[in-house]
Specification:
heterodimer, A: mainly alpha, B: D-Maltodextrin-Binding Protein, domain 2, D-Maltodextrin-Binding Protein, domain 2, 2 domains, ten-stranded mixed β-sheet, 41% helix
Amino acid sequence: MTIATPQVTPDGAERCAPPRRGASARMWAWLGLVPFLAYLAVFLVLPTMLALASGLFTRDGSFTWDNLAALGDPVVLATFGNSMWLSLVTAVIGAVIGALVCYALLGIREDGPVRTFVDAAAGVFAQFGGVMLAFTFIATIGLKGVVTQLLLGVGVELFADGPWIYELPGLVLPYIFFQIPLMVITFMPTLSALKPQWAEANLTLGGTRATFWTHVGIPVLAPSFLASTLLLFANAFSSYATAAALASQGSQIVPLQIRTSLTSETVLGRENLAGALALGMIVVVGVVMWLSSLIQRRAARWQR
Amino acid sequence: MTTLLRARQLTVGFAAVAATALALTGCAADGPAAGDSTAATATSLADFGTLADLEAAAKAEGALNVIALPRDWANYGEILDAFAAKYPEITINEASPDVSSAEEIQAAKTNEGLDTAPDVFDLGLTVALQNTDQFAAYRVQGWDEIPDALKESTGLFVGDYGGYMSIGYDSSKYPEPATLQDLLGTDYKAAVAVNGDPTQAGAAFAAVGMATVQSGGTLDDFQPGIDFFGELSKAGNMLKVDVTTATVASGETPVVFDWDYLNATHVTDNAAWKVRIFPGTGYAAYYNQAINKNAPHPAAARLWEEFLYSDEAQNLWLKGGARPARMEAMIAAGTIDAAAAAALPAAPSTVVVPTEKQSTDAGTLLGEKWAAAVQ
């Protein structure tokens, strides 16, 4: 995309295109890309092909639309709706809180211990999903959890309206738990790239704090903020293990439906539906990633 | 065998990958003993001669591959150890203890021709019925003592142990439910869980079946059972968390729908844990033994079957709270472990088991209605 265009510095004064090299050098450069391409082939292209194949062909190899038609089934549609709702809610909440945390961190010395600590913690907790996280929540705010019991002691009944922690809305809390740190990791670099000179220029030109944000800060940050939000969306959309341990009834989200079609011992012969569901997920994530890259491209203008 | 604990299932994917890797690296190792064609086609002990001949053939093979046998399930741990103690020359390879019945068959197909393929299966009835072309027919010595209803007539698969759908509950905190409807009451607020999702796990499927017959319905239509769980969910009594030994031990899931022999094992986690089978119509199911027709160790596979249907192993299942297939005959012969038999919860007066068609219809209905009912 933008890699091939000649580099132009913001003031446009000088060109610093890399010196031309011979064809052999270019070949070496391509060779360097091979490990990455192999990685892509094994972990992205191959699974996509397999999903396509199992979704579009029957077990004995003939072409069929039946599995894709099953995507229109009300249960499946509801599951996709649930998945998207859950991902969107946790992405937006995670993005807003995460961005506020980043903003707060701006005021702290970059090489100070607090900043280092928060960076490290965000790195760890962004990956702290799955059964560990589910069990952490069961142990703390489960029905017999430590926090639940403490609150009960002071008269606050967390589950007066039923055990919502094990329902779909109950997943929001654990998801946010790994969404916020991921936002901190992805958004922090952009926020720290806000140049102090811009604020100074704004003040010099007679602007206020408010005009800085409305005319400079937000327009510059918005693309990157949206791109990060979309990343969080995709992150939540593909999460499986946390939900599997917490909300095990009814396979309310798509990854759980895929599990059901693959391993069910009560409804057999639906392995191909799993392929179709995976295909549906690939389409959704593909659209999200395409939007994200559009926005990133715009954001890149400010980050040279 | 069944998807019993989802938490464990996460290790399953890993185990499957590991197994595949093993399979890939292991193919150069000592080839399958399939050259012993008598063993691979033997349909009863007579084809070997005597039990001693079968034992000799199995020992010559030196290994037995089992799959999906959790050590805390129906006392399988003790059964495996007893076999190992009796035949120290035969190494038991226990693969993926927590995979589902469907995954057992997948493992046999994926590893076909390799010495890592499972020799024997322990399967839910639905999966057994749909995969008979994967099995080798074999009739064990005690064949005649196994009730006809529990066996495929040629011996392709045979019921091994079973039980009734039951309610396990923490008797120190909750009263004994007299009827199914009691569970809808305020006593059981946020307390009732099902072991698995019925569109996926056999035990949970049976829970809906049991609720159906206990609500006055028949197995032709699971709707009354689905309605019951819908009401349970609306009353705020239903817990949707995945039931594991840990959630029972911590008290997070104090009332659980599960097989009686699985509920019985929770006594070790909670001394006040009790098992209740509702009187009237009960819902029963047996798991089934089958031999992989491409078993890498055909003689060992048959010896394992002979062992499982011996008085010794049948009593070990009984000790684990399950009802072994030869139970009636053993009671008549006086070879049953009387103490273990007396410890079982009383059996309901009428017992139903779904036919293949009822099973399929219920599966379709659950796929359409379950998610919405318990939402």
